[in-house]
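Re: export button greyed out
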Amino acid sequence: MGTRDFTLHKTIITDNTSIAPGVNLTRLERKFDFIPGQVIGVTVSKDIPPRLYSLCSGTEDKEFEILYNVVESGLLTPRMEPLQPGEQVYITEPFGSFTHVDCHVNWVAAGTGIAPFISMLRSGITPKGWMVYGARKSENFFFSQMLRSHFNERFIACCSGDCDANDDFYKGRLTTYLSEAEDLKPGEMYYLCGSVDMVIQTREILMQKGVFYDNIRAEIYF
Amino acid sequence: MKICFMTQSPITENILFGKTLEELKGIAASLNLPAFNARIIAEWLYKKNVRDVHQMTNLSKKAREALSKDYTMGMADPVKEQKSADGTKKYLYTSSSNKFIETAYIPDRERATLCVSSQVGCKMGCLFCMTARQGFQGNLSAGEILNQFQSLPEKETLTNIVYMGMGEPFDNLAEVLKSLEILTSEWGYGMSAKRITVSTIGVIPGIKEFLDKSNCHLAISLHTPFNEERRKLMPIENVYPLDEVIAYLKTFEFTRQRRVSFEYIMFKGINDTQRHVQELNRILNGIKCRINLIKFHPIPGTQLKGSDARTMEYFRDSLNAKGIIATIRASRGEDIYAACGLLSTKEIVKPAAPDF
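Workaround output, generated via the alternate export path:
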């Protein structure tokens, strides 16, 4: 394998929408092919190092789509948040290998960590396992309809904070749910995506329940 | 979803310690002081052990008053010290923002090495590392990194500094580079870059910038030459795979003045076989380097086991027979949790509100 090209390429924002307080879904003119689960580097200026975002678009979609938290004290996202369609940003080519393997896989995500899984679903990947999705508030469960329709009763939304009582939530953290779960199968694969705390805690719970580390694949974001 | 490397720097606007000469010039200008004052301040900060602006006696009274009005010095003594049976010491520092920082001092005959932290906790989530269990609390400023050296009781005995404590240095690249500039500049501590090693798990953009902007040695946490195995041990492999790291290193000319080494924690039955020797030999062909074989220090609940001493010796000899310089790093400070992969201040960190 050669050295990867981290060259920044100009692209145009086609849509930039706040989908929850402090969370944006941004669409970009698509420049490259990619594999679901891959990331792109994004920046608004060549002076600011690109940050990596998982694509949540499908491989057949005409645009790139990314989902991100706006970090008020951050260098990049406060500059990305107000950008309008037609404005320019820079991206790298997609890369990364948090990609689907063809076996019985279960997914665990928190907040915007859902992005790579959405990309997989939109690309036609339909895992046979279940999906556990955690967030603090109702509004931070992104793409819930899509997830529910794909997974049906195999979709478990774990709400650790204030959530709409009418919705079908497990009340508590996803780590609590997994600790209590009695049907985790050690021989299956587990894909985790979220903050380092979520990934570490979930990984420990899975290993305590007999899942060998070999069967756990993790993507960490901040 | 954002995967965040090179996270933002901590805010240290009103702290002098940890400022580069250029930053000190900016401060002098902002206070309407002559530009040459910056070099004088740097000398007091980094060559003399003063902790009070008023001790900077060759600055004018006006300059001292202006500085002390807006700035604090920023050095802080360790708040806790533990000593191992083998002489290794672990120090706990606190920062102005109440972060807890662990530092290991490792004396060894005529050498004495300081293992400094660059972050509080870590985001990389390596399966075998105690720091990873802590999660991530924040980046250290250049001053907080350097204070581990400046305020070390054994500072004068030090021969080497390694950035192998808590955190991934290239996830806090700007502050790490600033600290290296201060350590190696003639206006700073004036240390030789050959006495400093920065260790990374392989953040490729960070490696490129580091090699471009610093002359210090580079160490890469390798741990297995096989991508699929490495992905299971180190999530970074998903984003910056080892073969791309190696490919980039092969494009860089390491001279006698500069060294690249590889860290290799040995796990029983996982990465300690002849197949691994063969593959290491293949992928490292063309890179003048050495491999440090490290005993695994088990962390609670781990499924991993360390290779036994005999296997490690055989592995080392097999690598040496292929022309790869390999050594077994002596395990130090294990009884005080100062050994490789054991640093963690989890017990004294207030947990942040989780997002799950």
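Residues 87 and 107 of chain B are 7 Å apart (CA to CA). The button fix ships in the next patch.
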